[in-house]
Automatic annotation (TrEMBL):
Reaction equation(s) it catalyzes: a phosphate monoester + H2O = an alcohol + phosphate
Domain named Purple acid phosphatase N-terminal: residues: 57-144
Keyword Glycosyltransferase: no
GO MF annotation terms: acid phosphatase activity; metal ion binding
Keyword tags: Glycoprotein, Hydrolase, Signal
Protein name per its UniProtKB record: Purple acid phosphatase
Enzyme Commission no: 3.1.3.2
Assigned protein family: Belongs to the metallophosphoesterase superfamily. Purple acid phosphatase family.
Residue ranges occupied by any Calcineurin-like phosphoesterase domain in the UniProt entry: 153-342
Pfam families, alphabetized: Metallophos, Metallophos_C, Pur_ac_phosph_N
Residue ranges constituting the Purple acid phosphatase C-terminal domain according to the UniProt record: 358-415
Source species of the chain: Picea sitchensis
Domain of life: Eukaryota
Catalytic EC class: hydrolase
Length: 448
């Protein structure tokens, strides 16, 4: 009943917003020829699953795991299935195999299936591999990312598993990307563990074919004091290459692909100057070689630059401690989620437009059941270029060492419509920002 009331209210607000929008359009005689009606939230999908056998692999997904390696993760009901992946470059011909390990977890009354993790490689770049999990069952395939530019990233956070999620996923699948980046809030299971399983099935068609690199959001926490540790399900199911990148926690790590160094941070674990995460970030950033990886990107969940009324100020503490590190390292782009809307900033540092700061992009509009965050603060801050509350996804096409094209695609009546786009130049090529920055600026990246 409460849900229904909220829906009705939301619909009213949407209608109202819609009218205001039309008014603005008329008054402002905008370039756009029509008023876009923002979609209401859609229901949670029921994801069918036809299991044939307890040893059948399900919820298969892959992630980058160090140079030329891929981690294959899948779940079986049967806990006697070996953690083995056979693979090769022709269908049905498995010329190599690797072993890994498996584990399960309990969450109150729920017991997970057996979760297998196997790292395979060395793999050739930009090549299709065929693989089979557990020595049995159906064949899957994936493509490894290229070793050099160009490379395409699909980026969207706060996915959930509603009708809008499946629309967003369909658009991502069409965009021919190499690596998916997810800035937190995956399944919206929110303690109901079977929803992690349905999410795993929902994303399998995409996540078994291209590496999905994720970081945690608040919905991954699932902490029950005295009973359940935070991030139990997330860490068990979405193991990321933290060991491979010298981190001691699955909640923050980094990876490199085709000339791009990507740092995945944790908004919901310690980030103070005495924290492990802070020290690890110092070390990781100080090791970045901009000749080898001209692009430097950082990803986390709660945005630092957000002019939406939703989650206002939630990233402030993390920003106060970590933004100087990012600035010293000359980070190009920061992606965040959490706010269910889209927003892109100018290059910005310390809340002011700054030519050597990062471009901040909030892309928390994957399509979860909580709906959109429709209210923005007026006037629009100077650092904010584009903001809109609609579901959609982003694509970053890194053309070469200097140029990357960013575009945001709104789910307009279920069609992807390119609604914002911009060319971004890497700071690694900027004399003003790199050569001009005095040596002491980088000192902050070295632990005392
Ligand atoms: C990099 O890509 C951009 C956009 O396609 C192009 O204009 C530029 O000439 C390229 N630079 C080099 C060095 O190839
Ligand atoms: Fe969130």
């Amino acid at each position: 009943m409460k849900m229904k009331m909220e829906r009705v209210q939301e619909t009213r607000i949407m209608l109202l917003m819609g009218r205001t929008w039309i008014l603005i359009m008329l008054v402002g005689s905008c370039a756009s020829a029509y008023a876009y009606t923002r979609p209401p939230p859609r229901d949670i999908l029921s994801i069918p699953f036809h299991r044939k056998h307890g040893s059948d692999p399900e919820q298969v997904h892959i992630s980058l795991a160090g140079e030329n390696q891929m981690r294959i993760t899948w779940i079986t009901d049967d806990d006697n299935v070996p953690s083995i992946v056979e693979y090769g470059t022709s269908p049905g011909v498995y010329t190599s195999s690797s072993r890994g390990d498996s584990d399960s977890y309990s969450y109150m009354l729920y017991g997970s299936g057996q979760i297998h993790h196997v790292v395979i490689g060395p793999l050739e770049a930009n090549k299709i591999y065929f693989y089979r999990c557990g020595g049995y069952g159906p064949e899957y395939s994936f493509k490894t990312p290229p070793a050099q530019f160009p490379i395409v990233f699909a980026i969207v956070g706060d996915l959930g598993q509603t009708g809008w999620t499946s629309t967003t996923l369909k658009h991502i699948q069409q965009c021919n990307y190499d690596v998916h980046i997810l800035p937190g809030d995956l399944s919206y299971a929110d303690y109901l563990q079977h929803l992690w399983d349905s999410f795993g099935r929902l994303v399998e068609p995409l996540a078994s074919e291209r590496p999905w690199m994720v970081t945690e959001g608040n919905h991954e926490k699932e902490l029950i004091p005295f009973f359940m540790h935070a991030f139990t399900a997330y860490n068990a199911r979405w193991l990321m290459p933290f060991k491979e990148s010298g981190s001691s926690s699955n909640l923050y790590y980094s990876f490199e692909v085709a000339g791009v160094h990507i740092v995945m941070l944790g908004s919901y674990t310690d980030y103070g100057e005495d924290s492990d995460q802070y020290r690890w970030l110092q070390t990781d950033l100080s090791k970045v070689n901009r000749r080898r990886t001209p692009w430097l990107i950082v990803v986390f969940h709660a945005p630092w630059y957000n002019s939406n009324t939703a989650h206002q100020g939630e990233g402030d503490d993390m920003m106060a401690t970590m933004e100087p590190l990012l600035y010293a390292a000359k980070v190009d782009i920061v992606f965040a989620g959490h706010v269910h809307a889209y927003e892109r900033s100018r290059r910005v540092y310390m809340r002011n437009v700054h030519p050597c700061g990062a471009v901040h992009i909030t892309i928390g509009d994957g399509g979860n059941h909580e709906g959109l965050a429709t209210r923005f603060i007026d006037p629009q801050p100077q650092w904010s270029v584009f903001r809109e509350a609609s579901f959609g996804h982003g694509e970053l096409r890194v053309a070469n060492a200097t140029h990357a094209h960013w575009s945001w695609h709104r789910n307009d009546d279920d069609e992807p419509v390119k609604s914002d786009e911009v060319w971004i130049n890497s700071l690694s090529q900027s004399r003003e920002c790199i050569e001009g920055s005095d040596y002491s600026g980088r000192k902050i990246l070295v632990s005392p």
